Amino acid sequence: MPSAPPLAAHVNLVFAWLWILMGFLTGALLGTGFQRSEWLGGYDSLRRRLYRLGHISFFGLATMNLLFYFTVQTLAAPGPVVPAASWLFVIGGISMPLCCLVMAHAERMKPLFVVPVTSLITAAALTLWEVART
Ligand code: HEM
Q1: pLDDT value for 39
Q2: Shortest-distance atom of ligand 1 to CA 20
Q3: Ligand 1 pocket: which residues have CB below 6 Å?
């Protein structure tokens, strides 16, 4: 009888597909005005760059969550750091595009990026620890 797939990290699989959908939807939103060179202050403006970064970050962090999901499937006995890494990938995934949106409208909020950056660095370090010990 085939063994049941580990439930750990299932949230990352669902999150990854939700974020791919969000990437397409934000792309469609950008598609409404991108042909106008002066849109959102111009292609090189900080606001437009942050909107683009937010759009791309949906795909990038969806990919990280997908990779994490498949990595966990390879672990014979997932250790206690796995749930922490799992949620940190989700927190990083949510907070990164959110920070892009907030900073696009309030440059002084730049320090908020400490949330996604530390979440994602910690998530990657915990995952490395987990795969290296098995
Ligand atoms: C429904 C699908 C998508 C739509 C409608 C869409 C739409 C757009 C639009 C309109 C822009 C230009 C924004 C601007 O001028 O400021 C853009 C930029 C960008 N998109 Fe998407 N996109 C889609 C999917 C993707 C995917 C799958 C990826 C990569 C995984 C991606 C990566 C990028 C990147 C890297 C940029 C920046 C390009 C540059 O700097 O010139 N997009 N997208």
Answers
A1: 96
A2: 27
A3: 23-24, 27-28, 30-31, 34, 48, 52, 55-56, 59
CB 88 within 8 A of CB 119: yes
What's the confidence (pLDDT) of residue 3? 46
Q: Comparing 8 with 80, which gets the higher pLDDT?
A: 80
Tell me the pTM: 0.93
Report phi then psi at 10, rounded to 5.
-60, -35
Helix axes 10-30 and 81-105, enclosed angle (nearest 10): 20
Q: Which atom of ligand 1 is nearest to the CA of 60?
A: 30
Average pLDDT, the chain: 94
| Residue 74 φ/ψ region, left for φ over 0, alpha for ψ in the -120 to 50 degree band, beta for the rest | alpha
CB contact at 8 A, 93 and 51:
no
Choose the residue to mutate in 56, 61, 63, 65 for probing ligand 1, maximizing ligand atoms within 8 Å of C-beta. Answer: 56
Hey, whose CA ends up nearest to atom 7 of ligand 1? 27
